[in-house]
Prior knowledge:
The complex is a heteropentamer. Helices cover 73% and strands 3% of the residues of chain B. Chain B has helices at 3-31, 38-54, 60-83, 91-113, 136-158, 160-170, 172-177, 182-205, 215-229, 234-254, 260-274, and strands spanning 126-129, 132-135. A two-stranded antiparallel ribbon of chain B has the order 1-2. The longest helix of chain B is centred in the first third of the chain and has 29 residues, at 3-31. A six-stranded mixed beta sheet of chain D has the order 2-3-1-4-5-6, with helices on both faces. The longest helix of chain D has 20 residues, at 27-46. By secondary structure, chain E is an alpha/beta fold. Chain E has helices spanning 42-50, 72-78, 95-102, 106-109, 112-122, 124-128, 139-152, 169-184, 196-202, 220-223, 227-232, and strands spanning 2-13, 16-27, 31-36, 57-62, 65-66, 80-83, 157-161, 188-192, 205-210, 213-219. In chain E, α3 (95-102) packs parallel to α7 (139-152) and α5 runs antiparallel to α7. The N and C termini of chain E lie far apart (36 Å). The model of chain E has no long low-confidence stretch (mean pLDDT 89). Bound molecules: adenosine-5'-triphosphate (2 copies) and magnesium ion (2 copies). One adenosine-5'-triphosphate sits between chains A (13, 16, 18, 36, 38-44, 85) and E (136-141, 166).
Amino acid sequence: MMILQVKGVSKRFGGLQALSNVTVDVPPGQILGLIGPNGAGKTTLFNVINGVYKPEEGEVIFKGKNVVGKKPYRLAHMGLSRTHQIVRPLKDLTVRENVMVGACFGSQNLSLGKAARIADEVLEFVRLRERANQLAGSLNVGQKKRLEMARSLAARPNLLLLDEVLAGLNPTEIAQMVEIVKEIRTRNTTIIMIEHVMHAVMKVSDQMLVLDFGKPIAYGTPSEIANNPKVIEAYLGDSSLADQFNAELAAKSAATAE
Amino acid sequence: MDFFAFLIDGLLIGFVYGIAAMGLTLIWGVMNVINLSHGAIITLGMFGVYLAFAELGLHPYLGIVLVGMAGLLTGMVIYAVAIHRVINAPHLSTLLATFAVNMIIIGIGTAYFTTNARNVDFSLGSVKAGPVNIQVTRLVAAAFSVAVTGSLYFFLYRTKYGKYIRAVSNNREAAELMGIPSAFILALSFGLGTMLAGIAGGMIATFFPFTILSGGTYEVKSFVIGVLGGIGNPLGALIGGILLGIFEGVMPYFTETSWVPVFEFGLFVAILLFRPQGLLGAKK
Amino acid sequence: MTTQGTDAKPQNELLNTLLDNFKIWTKKLSHPGLWITIVGVFILGYLPIADQSPEAAFANATARESTFTILMSIVLVSSLNILLGYTGYVSFGHIVFYGLGGYVGLYTIIEHQWPLWKAMAAGGAAAGVLALVLGSAILRLRGAYFALATIGINEAMRAFVSNYDPFGGAVGLSIHFRVYRETYGSYQDAFLVMYKAMLGLAIAAVVLSYLVKSSKFGLGLMAIREDEDASDIMGVIPYRSKIIAYMLSAILPGMVGVVFFFKASTIEPAAAFKLHTSIEWLVMIMLGGFGTIMGPVLGAYGYQNLRTILLTSEFFKNIQLAVAGLMLLGIILFIPAGLIGWLRRHISFTRRVLT
Amino acid sequence: TFPAKTHAQSERTITIGFTASQTGKYNVESTRQINGINLWIEQINGAGGITLSNGTVLKFETKFYDDESSTDRVQELYTRLVTQDGADFLISPYSSGLTDASALIAEQYGVVMLTAGAASDSTYQKGFTLVYQTYTPASRYLTGAVDLLAATDPDASRIAIVHENDKFSTDVANALNSYAEDLGYEIVLFEGYDSGTTDFAPFINKIEAADPDAILGGGHFQDGSTFARQLYEKDAGANMIALLVAPPEPTFAELGDAALGVVGPSQWEPLAQIDASKAEELGIEFYGPSSQEFTAAYMEMYDEEPSYHAAGGYMAGLLIQKAIEDADSTDTDDVAEALDNLDILTFFGRNSFDTSDDNHGLQVGHSMMYVQWQADGDELVKQIVFPFEAASAETVYPIGSE
Amino acid sequence: MAILEVRDLASGYGEVQILWGATLSMEKGQLTSLVGANGAGKTTLLKTVMGVVKPREGSVWFDGRNVSSLSAHKKAEIGLVLVPEGRQLFTDMTIEENLEMGAAPKRAKSKFNANLERVYVMFPRLKERRLQRAGTLSGGEQQMLAVARGLMSDPIVLMVDEMSLGLAPVLVLELFKILRQLKDEGLTLLLVEQNVQMALAVSDYAYVLSHGKVDLHGHSKDLVHDDHVRSAYLGM
Ligand SMILES: Nc1ncnc2c1ncn2[C@@H]1O[C@H](COP(=O)(O)OP(=O)(O)OP(=O)(O)O)[C@@H](O)[C@H]1O
Ligand SMILES: Nc1ncnc2c1ncn2[C@@H]1O[C@H](COP(=O)(O)OP(=O)(O)OP(=O)(O)O)[C@@H](O)[C@H]1O
Ligand SMILES: [Mg+2]
Ligand SMILES: [Mg+2]
């Protein structure tokens, strides 16, 4: 049984075909990496899955039910959580309260007291515990990203959609976040993860889906994807070129430094 | 009853409604400030023209030009004193700041002018068009409204200042970072809105008697018009004003006059519900 | 999260839940801010009626009247704060509930000789129903558009009532003096009843706004205030929550309308649906501190006292409006977060006490 | 009263309390009213006050607050006047709505209240016992205009009644409607307009279509003058126009030609010749200054012609004065009794009150005058045209025929 | 002579102080990178330099002139430009209008057409979507627009906060290439980057900010080999 099936989904904005005929199955417990060039339609796919946009065509089947046309809150109650690429903290609430909203209104429908406990646990988990009483608006970008994460985790989702949670973190912090993601997966939460930080997403994904101009151009394991010429051309860039570029730069800086 | 007469009268007053609303929707659309001193400023415009006419003996239309210039300055001063400090605070703060300005203007105005009605005893006669008797002052006002709308439109959409105004309204900090003097632009926008309100008041004064409290009516109408035409769009305000004028003019043909506001505001709410972006579908 | 074992025993879960609930309620009800506010309002309201001897009653009459005005504002403003402060929706035309309540109440008193409490219930219910009906329509609007719709509704209602004969049309409704004597003995006694009703409503409003704020429902409202779409995605049901908040904020004002117009003995459309008054309510909320429990109370107290001073001072009464405007402007410019916000920011120990 | 009290030549200050609409829509009328009251205070104190038979000399002072033309605080302010400022007598606020609310306070604390500007009859049908009306009530505001029409033009048969949709004007219009119908007139249009109305064009189109001989109605000053100006500019074409409140105000003349021929009901006019000789005809007492004396004194103090609101304010004071004298006491019951029994002629006209339970305090003695703006060379002058015995000029009829 | 110099800068928000005396300096035509952990105060530093956040102590010198008290728009006018964190686009305006606003400083006016041409070549996607509202762009597209808009103002010193955030790898490479090209044309650049490796590779000089102070600075090629940098920021 798949936890999520996307079947032939298409979504248009005016003249722009943001998604065309996207199909993908996600089995429970898996981490699906979703990559693709900027504007490929990744975020739009998330928005279709959780009910923010209604697709013109296709079905989204979550836990066996077609959820097209359902409101986002219905999906949240069914156990779907997401983070936002462009963070959306509830600015005038404290960090803890932000997370409590996730816990209270998510799949578990918790009482305030329980939610507060869960919030503290989750904040600990994403290393924001000491900021719990601060207003969410005063966090910096990286912290806000972790807050997004905490909020959606607190809902105890069955399916978690992560939209570029690694962006804006430095390599050390990325490594920590990757650990967190892995940890979540051990707790039976299925994850779809949009990411541009390749080495990280390659490390954690079971399968990867690549979108380009709204169309799926490749699907497979990370190593298959990494070597897929179509993907390299559209998205990763010529890796030999990258190496060459780096070397050239290094040489150049060495030269000017003399 | 001649339906045509109702229609023409409504149409003509609609132009004035339009220009009265323009200042409000400009400030609102551009600065995201709901200006509760709008009505009071319209009244100041009326008194400006009245005083120029009664005390200085100036022609009312000259008075309107002076009022417009004074309005621009007054608006910029009001902005600097009362609004700039809270422009980044939650939007209720600016609402209340303008409400306070309203209280100050009305308070001083009442103490000084009383609520006695004033009248600019000025007429350009009227022309007969079939069954309809049209005052020339209203025709002039209509033409003037069109001209003002045109120039404002040009200013907002064709000059760099207009674009700056829209940029500042959209993202103040970014505008500042791009080298746009946001404080000045905001003051200018408020000044423009005030100028328009003053001009509208001045025009109204050429054909209606008024008191220090008269602006309130136009303020509420301006809200309605803003919604009809879409907020922040001068052409929308003019068309919204005309629609409202026609509605008010024509409704009494069909029903008792005292029921007109019921339909007027009922329709207003209905439009809000079904076309919140305005009948003209202005920008979101 | 990591320690949250899935293998925890069900009894433990139950126990935990009970314990949680108990903790929450004790914590909720022992918040000093709540009690300070309730006791404050009670003392404020009780002082002018403490001594019922005729001399004291006479001497305190003015205090009773001005306290009545303050209590009334506390109810109105605390209620509006549920919508404005928690949910973030600005209702300019909130007075429509007060006016409608007043009309329904006076109508039942005059036509059906209902006692005050029953009329209050009717006024509150009418306001609640109106909020439900209107809310389901206009709460689909956001931000300024909602605010405008509330103005439209108030104006439409005013115009409608001016033409509606059962409510006396433009002439309004008026209560015969005998009603007070026959039902309550004298107007004084009737007033005392109204006064106590208003005190009760004020305390009810404080408790209601506290309970809402400290509940899960309230948390949902505040999430809506901050970002409606994001809260939707997190599972808050915005539409339903907003309607409930709108109703909660309408019922008490409906009841206040009944009491006030019963006290005045007369109601006319222009007085019942005066837009300007609605805006004054916003002013009071902002003065005290928006989204807080004490803010509206302090705001109402401060604002109405200030108005009394200005209205009655020999020096200012000519230009009291302008002076009030100047003071308001000063406050907005220099303490934009309201009194409570300012205190919480500048005097740290108040953060625990003020709410 | 005990004789023991008489030996002390004590002086007492009597406080007259009221609220005024210093801000808000009733500001003009209310300000004039205060002017009238202040003139009265000045005159009576100047004349040495009132000396009671027990030797007490009464001096007068006022105490007033701004009610902002709103019911919100009017009860609070009247309570303050009575319980803190020790007001001995009250004068009502302007307008019936505010008066209804404040009358409860007067009644509750047993203080006599004279009303001015509270014209609606309903106020006096609410069971008050201490509230007395200075003005002719709303029900008789415009009935005289119909009489005037009947007398000037027997052929006229069609009347349009258009009124502001508020309490006072609606009361007037309703009474007018039944009065005119009883006289056999056809009411071709009966409609209200919203209080904020500024554009009467659609309304006037409707009137024109109804083709009335006379247009009667109006509301308050602002809408009345706007209406008059637009009637003129649109050349509405009725033979007679009579509007409430606005025409008697001196500033109505600012309308220029649009004011010409407009008739308005007035409680009192400076031109009115009311003096002792008239009282003799009626067989009642004449009290206070003559019309000319009042006008002169007022003009000296304020440098403007008194309007009927000013006279009304003065009159309210004068009635208190007369009642105290008659009662020889300031005690509420005594003064109330004196007022109940009062029937006098003053510069303002005749004054007496209904004493029945149903209408206690309603003014029954006084009646309206009707003024019309007429041209006198380049000047606009306000003439009294009805009742004929008080008239200072002939009615110009049809309007514009001059 | 340094074109931009920051001396002992201190600032913060409300009661909280974030910067505790940061000092850095940049030569004309140099590409400098600024790295540091989340919350170290990098963004705050840039905002304080621009004057969006008011400095509490210290000074900012531009081209030998003390500009500490100039407001942000005046700084932009003289050529000190920031591409802010979080894009800060004019979301209700089209791409092209955003670019026009970028060219608000007088000095940029005359070069408007040339600059527009140039950024459209750099980001063909923007050209394709000239009339799309900026708010509806994808995250990465918005980032392109933010950088392009900054370039439109014809800066002398361009500070970019998290340039590569949310960009596809292929585009990141592309952008770094472009920056190098700009630098060769004489532009002075200050990059705040989380992609530390890339930043150090491309820049001449680097500062490491930690807890509101400059912890370490030096030539980029040296810092790459610094043990502390390697463990704290490169994840090695
Ligand atoms: N509301 C909208 N109206 C018009 N176009 C839109 C809208 N939302 C998205 N688009 C366009 O649809 C395309 C897909 O956007 P989407 O946000 O899904 O991209 P993405 O794959 O998430 O890219 P990125 O990696 O840059 O975040 C983009 O070209 C974007 O400009
Ligand atoms: N508006 C604000 N109000 C209060 N505190 C703030 C505000 N903005 C940032 N901070 C705090 O200032 C500190 C530094 O933030 P800053 O954004 O400068 O860090 P940064 O180095 O840019 O981090 P990142 O790498 O995440 O962008 C953080 O702890 C943050 O919580
Ligand atoms: Mg995206
Ligand atoms: Mg940063």
